[in-house]
Amino acid sequence: xxRGHRSQIKRExxxxxDTRPSAKLSYARVSVQKACFVLDAIRGKNVNEALGxxxxxPRYASSLVKKLLESAIANAENNNxxxxxxxxxxxxxxxQGPIMKRVRPRAQGRAYRIEKRMSNITIVLDEK
Length: 128
Description:
128 residues; CATH 3.90.470.10; 3-stranded antiparallel sheet
């Protein structure tokens, strides 16, 4: 049952931690499917190229992902002292968040449920 002292367990857990710069947006009011269309377009690209793609992408999710990418770039420059020109998008993914359930009135006293979906979007950068 006992695996060691609490501090030893924490040391082991923190040793396996990912040190790549990242940014996460929780509870974004866009569905996972719609966010993934934008994320697929920038996955593996250079950050400057990805910002250009996001600037001229007409989808709503692209504005959210652009702000998130700029935050990840700032984290890389300030926290990890990385050069902006060498950064690329190593990972980007969206996971399902909570769902807001709403009711829409229909004919003959019935009610249909509307599900307003949210997502958690994560971007991880790395240096070439």
